[in-house]
Amino acid sequence: MAPRHAAISPLLALGLLALAGVILPLVTGDSYYLDVATTIVMNLLLTMSLRMQISTGQLNMAHISFMGIGAYTSALLAMRAGLSFWLTLWVGALVAAAFAVPIGAIALRLTGPYYFLITFAFSEVARLIFNNFFVGLLGGPSGLVEIPPPGPLLSVAFTGKLELYCLMLGLFLLGAAILVRLEYSRFGLAAGAIRQGELLSATLGVDVLRYKLTAFVLGSAMAGIAGAFFAHSHRVLHSSDFGLEPMVQLVIFTVIGGVGSIWGPVIGTVLMTVASELMRELRHYETLVFGLVLILTMLFLPDGLVSVPSRLVRALARTRARRGAIGVDVAT
Amino acid sequence: MLLELRGVSRRFGGLVAVADLSMGVSPGTVHGLIGPNGAGKSTVFNLISGVLPPSSGDIHFKGERISGLGPAEICRRGIARTFQATTVFSEYTVLQNLMVAGQPRSNDGTLAALVCSARYRRGEIDAHSRARALLAPFRLDSVADRVVGTLPHRDQKALSVGMALATGAEMLLLDEPLAGLAAQETRDVMDLLRTLRRRGLTVLLVEHDMRAVMDLCDRITVLDHGTRIAEGTPTEVQANPAVVEAYLGAAVGSEAGG
Asked: Do the Cβ atoms of A200 and B83 come within 8 Å?
């Protein structure tokens, strides 16, 4: 008995998503398509966890930095300590979460634009540290290179693109299952209440800070997992991977898809990543197109692309009602 | 006394909204808090419910000091409030609104939600049935699954009181629950408040409808310029010259002030 109503069963939607993910490599063995698909699935983990944070009324501009913390942690543990990726992956997530606890506990006492700004400031600090501090350890402006790929697991070698895709798909589905479960529990109910009215929620006894911090830490752990995967699949890291531009891209993916639904970021991320690949020729002007699409979405589809079907249904019902009314007129 | 304010003051910069206010509310009563516009009634509500901390003075509930606690903690101690401008979660259905309000009683961890333990599922079912039980007394059965933003004012108003009750509070602070209601709706809400009192709930009521206040309240505290100018039964308060003057003076003042 879910306390919230879903247009389609969330489990069914998750199953369809998994099915699509599994079918894709069967349809195409092309390595370029697999690359794009892997990026999409990694971005999905980032945007879905970002939306979970947004659903509690916090726009965290440092999400990408926690991805960076996961990436650098996992890469360094593998390179300097020789640990297996299958261990460093989870350590990366834990370290990202561990950083998120004190940072969230401080930042989340602020709301609205102040929260936005303090997370933005933190993300710049993190990027500067990746770029300019502990150069011997973090590689400074030249970044980290020759990060080892994931070692074999159960006699499967994770060197090919297909294996990497399957790995990221598995990690994403694990994260998505957690997010879906939370969304349709009383956690999701309270999160949405906080987004709609923080003061009202508080006066009804909802521990606003606790929910926000939970969302912040859990989302950061998921970003850390995406980061660790990114490090070992790209095998090079640079501070600019975790700067403002990719962060803004995540926000655009999420908002264009729609933050009101858990599936919004899925639609936004898939469509915009494909669009971005099609616009490769545009290079830097791509950002301009993204900005334009964002503005248009905000103006005409404030609930994002995910709201298009329900809008169509409503528009159809209205037309039918009008036609019905005319029919009555004719009859009388 | 269930609720006690001892020398409570609240300043906003140079403005003193509430000045050295002491008052008590006995358990099981409907206590009115009246006064002209700007007398500080809403500020008193904000102070009691923890939305604002008092600048000085103490507030005690069931013998424990609650001033300085946050709104969520004060709600869990047993005081729930409504707001003057009707506030509900407009994207949620009536039932979802009531379930959010019923949450604090079953504050389980996120982990419990994830693994979906039997205890958690029981909690979920409990929350649902508790919310359902509140529909009938507030005449919301027929709109239980409607999104609240689309409902008429009366239903939203009733829902906001229902949500305060759903928190399991022993004391409700109601800020103008009758404002904007038609005659029949007013009678409905007044009947509801009497039912709440019969069930042993304590109500602190801010209301401009004087007939309703005099009819409903066991005791009334009158505020003007943030200080208490009178307290007593409805008959005592009505006969008090200071009260009459405050109201007439306020009427003249508000005309002059435009």
From this structure: yes
| Residue bearing tokens 């029981």 | B122
Contact A206 B76 (CB under 8 A): no
Residues in A closer than 8 angstroms to B145, CB to CB, are 5
Radius of gyration of chain A from its Cα atoms, rounded to whole angstroms: 21
ipTM of the complex: 0.86
Give residue A331's pLDDT. 44
Within 8 A by CB and 6+ apart from B104, the residues are A204, A205, A206, B72, B75, B76, B167, B168
Q: What is the pairing mode between strands B3-12 and B56-61? A: antiparallel
Q: Does B119 touch chain A (CB under 8 A)?
A: no
Hey, where are the domains in chain A? 4-242
Terminal Cα-to-Cα distance of chain B (whole angstroms): 40
Say if pTM beats, i.e. exceeds, 0.90: no
> How many beta-carbon contacts under 8 Å exist across A and B?
99
Interface of A with B (CB under 8 A): 1, 3-5, 178, 181-182, 185-187, 189-190, 192-193, 196-197, 199-208, 214, 218, 260
Output the CA torsion sign for A303, A308, A309, A311. Answer: positive
- Distance from the Cα of A310 to chain B's closest Cα (Å) equals 15
d(CA A251, CA A62): 11
DSSP 3-state assignment of B142? helix
Is residue A88 within 8 Å of A73, Cβ to Cβ? Answer: yes
Residues pairing with B173 in the sheet = B81, B204
CA distance A220 to A49: 8
Chain B residues within 8 A of A183 when measuring between CB atoms: none
B222 strand-pairing partners? B34, B230
A199 to chain B: closest CA residue: B51
Q: Does residue A141 register a pLDDT over 70?
A: yes
The DSSP code for B59 is E
Q: Are strands B219-224 and B202-206 parallel, antiparallel or unpaired?
A: unpaired
* DSSP β-bridge partners for residue A212: none
Over the stretch A91-122, which tens digit does the pLDDT of each residue have?
999 999 999 999 999 999 888 788 889 999 99
CA distances from B109 to A48, B28, B80, B104, B141 (A): 21, 34, 23, 12, 31
* B46 at interface of A, judged by CB pairs closer than 8 A: no
Calpha distance B249→B42 (Å, rounded): 20
- Return the CA Rg of chain B: 19
Which residue out of B45, B46, B89, B173 would a mutagenesis test of the A interface target, given it has the greatest number of A Cβ atoms within 10 Å? B89
Would you mind telling me the total number of residues written for chain B in this entry? 258
Mapped onto helix, strand or coil, the DSSP state of residue B229 is: strand
Residue in this structure with the two tokens 């494909």, named with its chain if needed? A274
Evaluate if residue B182 carries a pLDDT over 60: yes
Banded model confidence at residue B253, pLDDT cuts 50, 70, 90 = very low
